[in-house]
Amino acid sequence: MYDINIKVEPISKTVTGTETILYSNNSPDTLKELVIRFVNNLHKPEAPAMIISRVIF
Predict the structure, then answer these.
(1) Cα(44)–Cα(40) distance, rounded to whole angstroms?
(2) Alpha carbons 3 and 10: distance in angstroms, whole number
(3) Which residues, other chains included, contact 42 with Cβ-Cβ below 8 Å and sequence gap of 6+?
(4) Distance in angstroms (rounded) separating the CA atoms of residues 50 and 39
(5) How far is it, in rounded angstroms, from Cα 42 to Cα 14?
(6) Which of 39, 36, 40, 32 is nearest to 56 (CA)?
(7) What pTM, to 2 d.p., does this model score?
(8) To 5 degrees, how large is the angle CA 53–CA 15–CA 7?
(9) What is the pLDDT along the chain (57 residues), one digit of tens a residue?
(10) Strands, E assignment, the chain
């Protein structure tokens, strides 16, 4: 499950927000890390194509 809240500011051309992710590990293995990839502005050559967040437990 995830919940995303965003605010778009057309004048400044910015988007801000928060996201909450609820993840359940259905495997018998211990989860040691969680990697989240955020794809951003793929149509803009000067923008970073992907942001990777890594949470290590």
Answers:
(1) 9
(2) 23
(3) 49
(4) 5
(5) 16
(6) 32
(7) 0.48
(8) 110
(9) 889 899 999 999 888 999 898 988 999 999 888 887 776 666 666 766 556 666 666
(10) 2-9, 14-21, 33-39, 50-56
